[in-house]
Design a protein that fits this description.
The chain is mainly beta. The protein has one domain (4-154): membrane protein fhac: a member of the omp85/tpsb transporter family (Porin), CATH 2.40.160. 4% of the residues lie in helices and 36% in strands. It contains 1 helix and 5 strands, in the order E-E-E-E-H-E. It has one helix at residues 140-146; strands at residues 44-57, 60-72, 95-105, 110-120, 148-154. The chain is globular and about 55 Å long.
Length: 157
Amino acid sequence: MLPYVKQFFSGGSSSIRAFRARSVGPGAYEIPDSLEFQDQGGDLRLEANVEYRFNLVGMFKGGVFFDAGNIWTLKKDPSRPGGEFMASEFLNQLAVGTGVGLRVEADFFVLRFDLGTPLRKPYLPEGDRWVIDEFKPRSRSWRRENLILNIGIGYPF
């Protein structure tokens, strides 16, 4: 296993924005509610992000995004079952999310506000991982669990 400072993490404002920071993976491992320190690192990361930006007014831009990916360990970790990378399983363990965002684009930085929701949760039992049919934005408990606000600062590209 890689040292903690060299591990990969997934989820958050610079990753899969529909999940809380460092909460995705490894693999199909589900973080227990009793675990206070929830950062989950891995030895391998696969991630893809697609974003479409459009003009709103002046330096304000809108964005629509789609993110997918996960992290894995290279060796079996008994404390995190389902976290080991297996070529035959990794596609079934991808986290998928989508959302919308507001960008404030100044000359030398971009301030991003992204509101994302998961489409696929890799830690759920196989067959129940796609959660698109559970979309209930009028439900307070659904919003608390599934709407994730990420704020990011970066360079314009």
